[in-house]
Design brief:
The protein is α/β, with parallel strands linked by helices and 410 residues long. Helices cover 25% and strands 28% of the residues. It has three domains: 7-114 and 244-305, FAD/NAD(P)-binding domain, CATH 3.50.50; 128-239, FAD/NAD(P)-binding domain (3-Layer(bba) Sandwich); 328-407, Enolase-like, domain 1. It is built from ten helices and 27 strands. The chain is globular and about 70 Å long. It comes from Dyella telluris.
């Protein structure tokens, strides 16, 4: 008599959870009976490309990673638009919003993150949205068809991508950012000035060093009031000020959480039957918002779910790249430097190119590239492998091909 297969339940149908399932199916395709619950009524899609969906450069079917048929072909039970609302760890059972219960032997949490919202007066007025999923994009596209003026709050990656997308849809867009430096978590001041000049050249209005005090309007949003008393007229407001790990479900179930769901180097939680990956987790005090570490987490977690428990997750330096057509921007590592570090800088104002590499002794520790980011991934490899770059020091700014042609392989 055949023994029943162990049951794997996945909470979250996003990129992190499904990448883990894909890796697991490569390693052990017949090990588990798999059930997936997702809050959105779609298959799995590439959230990174939402900005191109907003700008009209991609259509919804072009950003799909796994359509519902993919799950059926692999015997995966998929529940779309039906999030899990409770986890009974004693019975090892989850229950969905629609009342579906599934038992598990292993549970994978991939609930991702939720947008941070501004706690100011008027923040519940219609016309104020976040930028997190396909529904948000559809709301923005519909608003662009009916209204003229938009305000985007947040000068980080998502905010800039949202502002650019709405501008391409024909709206008059004002980008409001509390710092005087755009992408202040990813860029130094010089690169940020080049970026600001580019965005203004595209027709965006920038309000930097501006604090949002209130949202105002009668029946829907009409204006954003800033702390200095001035106002930005807006028929649509997009809030893109960051994200927070979505941990409420696991907190209610009693799993140990801090800022995120705390996991060890195998992506296992304090409950040995429960694993977690992606933006919902906290590993060695860090939380995550970029895709590269999430892919590595999926790889490690899948190996342990597949019972090939030899891998460990280690956090490395990751890179940031802006997804705005016509803007080539890349940053990685400790690009601000500090005591004992040295900067290598190249400026070419005519071509709009700026490069800054930060060295700590013979090793590269940070990089900012604007206007020419072709060597970005190579610089990240040098940072993560702590490569001795002393032999290329005078040529490092010119990139991989030039260094290898004149100084050998790394």
């Amino acid at each position: 008599m055949n023994r029943p297969r162990p049951r794997l339940v996945v909470i979250g149908n996003g990129m992190a959870g499904m990448r883990t399932v894909e890796e697991l199916l490569q390693l052990a395709p017949d090990l588990y009976d798999i059930t997936v619950f997702g809050a959105e009524p779609y298959g799995n899609y590439n959230r990174i490309l939402l900005s191109l969906l907003l700008s009209g450069e991609k259509q919804a079917d072009e950003i799909m990673l796994n359509e519902p048929a993919w799950y059926a072909e692999r015997g995966i039970e998929l529940h779309r638009g039906d999030p899990v609302v409770s986890v009974d760890r004693a019975r090892r059972v989850v229950r969905s919003r629609d009342g579906i219960e599934r038992a598990y032997d292993r549970l994978l949490i991939a609930t991702g993150s939720r947008p941070a919202m501004l706690k100011v007066p008027g923040n519940e007025l219609p016309g104020i949205v976040s930028f997190r999923n396909i529904d948000d994009v559809e709301h923005m596209v519909a608003s662009a068809g009916r209204h003229r003026r938009a305000a985007v709050i947040g000068g980080g990656l998502l905010g800039i991508e949202a502002a650019n997308g709405l501008s391409r849809r024909g709206m008059q867009v004002t980008l409001i950012h509390r710092s005087h430096v755009l992408l202040n978590q990813q860029l130094d001041g010089d690169a940020a000035k080049l970026l600001a000049r580019n965005l203004e050249g595209r027709g965006l209005a920038l309000r930097l060093g501006a604090e949002t005090a209130a949202f105002e309007g009668k029946d829907r949003i009409e204006r954003v009031r800033l702390a200095d008393g001035s106002c930005v007229e807006a028929d649509l407001v997009v809030i893109a000020i960051g994200v927070q790990p979505d941990i409420a479900l696991m907190q209610e179930s009693g799993i140990y959480c801090e800022r995120g769901i705390v996991v060890d180097d195998t992506l296992q939680t304090y409950d040995p039957s429960i694993y977690a990956v992606g933006e919902c987790v906290q590993h060695r005090q860090l939380t995550f918002g970029l895709v590269a570490p999430v892919w590595e987490q999926a790889n490690v977690c899948a190996a342990h779910l597949a019972r090939f428990g030899h891998r460990r997750y280690r956090t490395g330096q990751t890179a940031t790249r802006l997804k705005v057509t016509g803007i080539d921007l890349y940053s990685a590592g400790d690009f601000m430097g500090g005591a004992g570090t040295e900067d290598l800088v190249m400026r070419d104002p005519r071509r709009g190119i700026y490069k800054r590499l930060v060295l700590d002794g013979p090793r590269l520790v940070g990089a900012v590239l604007y206007g020419d980011a072709r060597d970005g991934s190579w610089y990240v490899d040098l940072i993560n492998h702590r490569t001795d770059v002393a032999r290329w020091r005078d040529r490092l700014l010119f990139g991989q091909a030039y260094c290898q042609a004149t100084g050998g392989q790394p």
